[in-house]
């Protein structure tokens, strides 16, 4: 029984293992899912890197914060004695030191006009008497004009010429380039860029922008921001693109003066830039009027009229004789009948706008044309002091809030508005998209009634 009979068949089953067939559809689905997950992971990693890269780069390589552009408050007006003393000193310069080279003390002549002005408070009659004693001849005029020429040459260091280049392809695939020019003035150096103030209109369609300095050196420039209200713009030049010692030896930063002084009439000025319609032209003259005012949305500009005959398309800058620019030439607001006389925006009304342009800050927009309420109007018609609304721009934030022509704005948030200058100052410190509570006085049958409206400021574009 224990021996195996070869003639007897075994009762055990014989199994054969076969490989499982490949499910191609399932394999393809898994491959596609793996590929999709890889793509999703890559996109997430890419966007995460892009988002964190500036933060990490700024943390590891912090950039020095550029200084904000700020123009200081205007100084007090010079007294007649100070102005006369300076004019005498310019005509007959003397040593200011109290001793001479050999150590002996220098004596002063009591009859010298300089000494009189320094030691005495002069009346108007005395000033006229001193001036009448000054006799000028042909030699003096030659010296004066030679001095003016040298003075203007020094001022040219802060002037530049901007060239806007536009390229077009005609039907024959030929590239044609056209250029427009505008003068500019260097107003600030923020250690990384030179900031240049210029008129925007001649350069509006430029595809490339070049700047030419007083010594003929050229480089590229870029727009920083424009002001639709005044038509001005600030362009920048990278300092690293300039030659070594260029800032110290070749150019100068211009200093803004004041156009709010009461004695501007008769002030000598020099027009530089393109006052005659050509680059680097120049004109001498005096200010003949400073009473003109241009009203724009949310701002007004004083106009300075001169007796300098220039081009109907003039642009450039007005300088006084103290090395300061006091006006930006405009040809859009010439007096009727005197279109060829140079007219300029007063610099005082432009300083805050120049700051915002230089700091690349947007302009807030309410959309009113306003003026101050004078003492006479207040006493005669009992109109409250504040900003009188002469008109409201269509579809402006002011119109949507219900502000009407004839209203008087007396307060904005907690800021009292006693005149139009207060209104302009408030708008300069507010950013667009800011909600402001405006207090207005509206005329009613029994006098003016107080109202408050909420306004969301827009952005001037």
What topology emerges from the helices and strands here?
Blueprint: H1 24-60, H2 80-91, H3 113-119, H4 124-132, H5 138-155, E1 159-169, E2 175-189, E3 193-199, E4 208-212, E5 218-220, E6 222-226, E7 232-238, H6 246-249, E8 255-256, E9 268-274, E10 281-296, E11 299-309, E12 315-319, E13 324-330, E14 341-346, H7 351-358, E15 364-365, E16 368-372, H8 375-381, E17 387-392, H9 397-401, E18 408-412, E19 415-416, H10 420-429, E20 435-444, E21 447-456, E22 458-459
Brief sketch in words of this structure:
Among the domains are: 157-249, Thrombin, subunit H; 255-358, Thrombin, subunit H (Beta Barrel), CATH 2.40.10; 364-459, PDZ domain (Pdz3 Domain).
Give a structural overview:
- Helices cover 25% and strands 32% of the residues.
- Helix 2 runs antiparallel to helix 3 (113-119).
- Among the domains are: 157-249, Thrombin, subunit H (Beta Barrel); 255-358, Thrombin, subunit H, CATH 2.40.10; 364-459, PDZ domain (Pdz3 Domain).
- With 461 residues, the chain is of the alpha+beta class.
- It contains 10 helices and 22 strands.
- A 7-stranded antiparallel sheet has the order 5-4-1-2-3-7-6, with helices on one face. Strands 9-10-11-14-13-12 form a 6-stranded antiparallel beta barrel. Strands 16, 17, 18, 19, 20 and 21 form a 6-stranded antiparallel sheet that branches.
- It has helices spanning 24-60, 80-91, 113-119, 124-132, 138-155, 246-249, 351-358, 375-381, 397-401, 420-429, and strands at residues 159-169, 175-189, 193-199, 208-212, 218-220, 222-226, 232-238, 255-256, 268-274, 281-296, 299-309, 315-319, 324-330, 341-346, 364-365, 368-372, 387-392, 408-412, 415-416, 435-444, 447-456, 458-459.
- Mean pLDDT is 83; it is low at 88-108 and 115-119.
């Amino acid at each position: 029984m224990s021996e195996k009979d070869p003639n007897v068949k075994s009762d055990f089953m014989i199994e054969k293992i076969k490989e499982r067939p490949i499910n191609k559809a399932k394999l393809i689905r898994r491959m596609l899912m793996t590929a999709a997950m890889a793509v999703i992971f890559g996109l997430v990693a890419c966007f995460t890197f892009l988002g964190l890269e500036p933060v990490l780069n700024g943390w590891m390589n912090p950039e020095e914060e550029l200084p904000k552009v700020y123009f200081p408050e205007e100084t007090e007006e010079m007294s007649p004695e100070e102005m006369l003393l300076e004019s005498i000193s310019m005509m007959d310069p003397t040593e200011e030191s109290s001793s001479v080279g050999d150590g002996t003390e220098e004596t002063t002549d009591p009859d010298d006009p300089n000494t009189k002005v320094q030691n005495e408070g002069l009346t108007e009659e005395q000033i006229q008497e001193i001036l009448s004693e000054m006799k000028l001849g042909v030699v003096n005029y030659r010296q004066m004009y030679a001095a003016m020429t040298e003075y203007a040459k020094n001022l040219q260091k802060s002037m530049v010429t901007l060239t806007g280049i536009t390229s077009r392809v005609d039907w024959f695939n030929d590239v044609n380039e056209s250029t427009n020019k505008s003068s500019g003035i260097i107003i600030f150096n923020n250690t990384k860029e030179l900031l240049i103030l210029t008129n925007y209109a001649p350069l509006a369609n430029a595809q490339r922008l070049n700047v030419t300095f007083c010594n003929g050196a050229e480089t590229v420039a870029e727009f920083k921001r424009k002001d639709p209200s005044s038509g001005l713009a600030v362009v920048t030049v990278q300092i690293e693109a300039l030659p070594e010692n260029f800032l110290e030896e070749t150019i100068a930063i211009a200093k803004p003066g004041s156009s709010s002084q009461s004695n501007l009439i008769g002030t000598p000025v020099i027009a530089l830039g393109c006052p005659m319609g050509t680059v680097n032209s120049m004109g001498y003259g005096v200010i003949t009027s400073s009473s003109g005012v241009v009203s724009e949305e949310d701002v007004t500009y004083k106009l300075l009229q001169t007796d300098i005959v220039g081009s109907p398309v003039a642009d450039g800058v007005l300088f006084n004789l103290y090395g300061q620019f006091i006006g930006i030439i405009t040809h859009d607001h010439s007096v009727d009948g005197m279109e060829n006389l140079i007219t300029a925006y007063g610099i005082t009304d432009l300083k805050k706008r120049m700051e915002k342009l230089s700091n690349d800050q947007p302009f807030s927009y309410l959309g009113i044309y306003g003026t101050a309420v004078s003492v006479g109007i207040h006493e005669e018609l009992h109109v409250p002091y504040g900003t009188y609304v002469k008109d409201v721009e269509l579809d402006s934030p002011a119109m949507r809030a219900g502000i009407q022509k004839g209203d008087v704005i007396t307060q904005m948030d907690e800021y009292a508005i006693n005149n139009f200058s207060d209104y302009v100052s408030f708008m300069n410190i507010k950013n667009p998209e800011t909600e402001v509570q405006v207090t207005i006085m509206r005329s009613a049958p029994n006098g003016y009634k107080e109202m408050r409206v909420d306004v969301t400021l827009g952005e001037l574009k």
